[in-house]
């Protein structure tokens, strides 16, 4: 059994000779993906392809990982771990996704039955990996299979205490137990296991990645900062790795880092798409986070540019993502944070039955939120009716409930029913806090407790507004509108020291803000009047 320490480099053929077992040619460079030690019984070339597949797998580049594992199968049709690897690409634990038929098909190409597949694995360790994945794609509900699989990985890790891959995949299996939701004790346990691997190999992409996923909430995010700083360097060839660092950065309100990470991620994706003669990447998960980062920095012109680029992509369905839904979400973020209730972005959207329910809901929310803010109650009520029709048809989520409720609360406020609006927003804020914590930009575009603070400040209850903004800050640290609300509420109750602290933080965040940004003028005016240094 060969033992490989694989580092995938993007180098020409002449340099590859100097790198043990680095699989590359002059015309086909290998992406930089990190370094792992995953020894198997595979032949030399098949092992190289297998290792590259695992590296892609650790960075959730599932399609590329599948290609690598299938290449290993072609090189060595009896290489059992290559089929294990392909089957692993069909489970996405963090996203609560699983394609059981595809995974079973991959395993059946190795052999027809679990017993025959076991016979193809020449070592006890490889038999254990195969045995675990048989459980993952066996009988029972997904929740049952995920639980039994994690137990199998716990045994594998305990029986092979010096195997970093057993530990790493065990940590990932723990993250999958939450079925797409965050269970803090389990996440912390997974993070601790991944940290042990990371401490022994600072170039391990999976260890860094799973540490980040384990700790990407505001309370635990500092525990993942070292891994986040490392991960983009570890795997510059994986777009997801570049984006993934921003999970920690968003949780800590590090907006410059959020923007840089997602600009790099989109750049990697566009490089890959260019090689495939596909349209440029201008909509999608990474650009949703990039938009949010721009908005927190007061870079609304950049946010509008990104939105317009995304709009051009939104009608193209020939790429493996849903650009239309992404556009609808980016638009909602832009409307909420730019507060341009009468601009071109907020006006003129039309619904269509051909849109998916989530896309239609997000468009309706953007329309309704802006209309309610500018006092166009007929449009706002029509938007609420559209949102209600979508949710009544079965498309429900906690975020949908909150978004619809926020527009209804704004309509009540505009009708003079301020107590009703406050009570509804209080209910929605408490409802959100009862949901499992969701990482990243707010899924409902506007945190309901922040909106409650806005309403309380508008009806001249600044002390109560400060309380709500402070609670909102705990969930979304350094969010610009929360900081601005805190500063304004502090001024209103005469706490100029607190106001100065928040305005100073905003001035630091808005160093790249658009010229003429009204809120930045407010910040500078207050700090200048109070004698704060520039």
Helix and strand content put the structural class at mainly alpha
The end-to-end distance, rounded to whole angstroms, is: 64 Å
Question: What's the arrangement of strands in the largest beta sheet?
Answer: 1-2
Kindly report the average pLDDT value. Answer: 89
Series of secondary-structure elements, N-terminal to C-terminal: EHEHHHEEHHHHHHHHHHHHHHHHHHHHHH
Shape label: elongated
Proportion in helices: 55-70%
* Uncertain ranges: 1-30
Rg from alpha-carbon coordinates = 25 Å
Q: Strand percentage, roughly?
A: under 5%
Give the biggest beta sheet: 2 strands, antiparallel
Number of helical segments? Answer: 26
Number of DSSP E strands: 4
In short:
Helix content is 66%, strand content 1%. The protein has 26 helices and 4 strands.
Please outline the helices and strands.
Blueprint: E1 6-7, H1 13-16, E2 35-36, H2 44-58, H3 62-75, H4 80-88, E3 91-92, E4 97-98, H5 100-110, H6 114-120, H7 124-136, H8 142-159, H9 164-176, H10 184-200, H11 205-214, H12 225-234, H13 239-252, H14 255-275, H15 285-296, H16 300-313, H17 323-338, H18 357-374, H19 377-392, H20 398-414, H21 418-434, H22 448-458, H23 462-475, H24 480-492, H25 496-509, H26 518-529
């Amino acid at each position: 059994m060969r033992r490989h320490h694989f580092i995938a480099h993007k180098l020409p053929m002449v340099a590859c000779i100097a790198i043990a077992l680095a699989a590359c040619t002059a015309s086909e460079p290998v992406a930089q993906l990190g370094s792992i030690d995953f020894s198997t019984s595979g032949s030399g070339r098949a092992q190289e392809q297998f290792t590259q597949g695992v590296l892609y797998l650790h960075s959730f580049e599932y399609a590329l990982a599948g290609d690598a594992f299938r290449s290993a199968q072609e090189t060595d049709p009896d290489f059992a771990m290559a089929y294990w690897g392909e089957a692993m690409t069909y489970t996405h634990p963090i996203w609560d996704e699983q394609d059981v038929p595809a995974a079973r098909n991959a395993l059946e190409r190795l052999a027809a039955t679990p017993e025959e597949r076991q016979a193809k694995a020449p070592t006890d360790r490889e038999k254990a990996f195969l045995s675990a994945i048989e459980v993952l794609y066996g009988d029972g509900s997904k929740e049952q299979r995920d639980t039994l699989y994690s137990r199998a990985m716990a045994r594998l890790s305990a029986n092979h205490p010096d195997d970093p891959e057993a530990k790493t995949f065990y940590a990932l299996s723990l993250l999958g137990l939450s079925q797409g939701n965050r269970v803090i004790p389990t996440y912390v346990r997974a993070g601790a296991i991944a940290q042990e691997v990371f401490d022994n190999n600072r170039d391990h992409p999976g260890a860094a990645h799973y540490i980040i996923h384990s700790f990407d909430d505001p309370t635990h995010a500092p525990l993942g900062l070292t891994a986040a700083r490392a991960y983009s360097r570890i795997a510059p060839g994986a777009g997801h790795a570049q984006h993934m660092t921003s999970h920690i950065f968003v949780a800590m309100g590090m907006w410059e880092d959020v923007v840089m990470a997602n600009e790099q991620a989109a750049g990697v994706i566009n490089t890959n798409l260019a090689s495939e003669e596909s349209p440029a990447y201008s909509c999608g998960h990474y650009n949703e986070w990039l938009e949010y980062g721009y908005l927190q920095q007061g870079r609304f012109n950049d946010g509008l540019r990104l939105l317009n680029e995304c709009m051009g992509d939104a009608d193209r369905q020939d790429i493996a993502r849903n650009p239309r839904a992404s556009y609808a979400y980016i638009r909602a973020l832009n409307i909420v944070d730019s507060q341009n209730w009468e601009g071109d972005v907020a006006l003129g959207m039309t619904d269509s039955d051909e849109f998916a329910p989530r896309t239609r809901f997000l468009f309706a929310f953007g329309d309704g939120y802006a209309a309610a803010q500018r006092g166009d109650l007929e449009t706002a009520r029509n938007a609420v009716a559209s949102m209600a029709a979508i949710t009544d048809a079965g498309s429900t989520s906690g975020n949908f409930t909150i978004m619809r409720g926020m527009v209804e609360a704004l309509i009540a406020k505009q009708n003079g029913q301020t107590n009703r609006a406050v009570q509804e927003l209080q209910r929605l804020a408490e409802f959100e806090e009862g949901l499992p914590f969701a990482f990243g930009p707010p899924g409902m575009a506007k945190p309901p407790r922040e909106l409650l603070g806005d309403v309380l400040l508008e009806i001249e209850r600044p002390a109560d507004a400060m309380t709500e903004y402070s609670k909102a800050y705990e969930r979304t640290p350094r969010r610009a509108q929360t900081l601005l609300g805190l500063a304004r509420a502090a001024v209103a109750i005469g706490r100029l020291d607190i106001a100065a602290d928040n305005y100073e933080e905003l001035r630091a965040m808005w160093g790249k803000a658009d010229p003429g940004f009204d809120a930045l003028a407010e910040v500078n005016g207050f700090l200048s009047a109070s004698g704060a240094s520039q």
